[in-house]
Amino acid sequence: VVQGLTLPWIARKLKVEEPNRDFQSESKARVSLLQELIGEVGDLIKNEPIPEYRESLERWKMHYQDRLRTLQDRLALPKEINRYATSRDGDLLPKLMDNARHRLARMRRTGEISEAVRRRIEHDLDVEEQRLKRFLARSQRDL
Question: Hey, is 119 helix, strand or coil?
Answer without folding.
Answer: helix
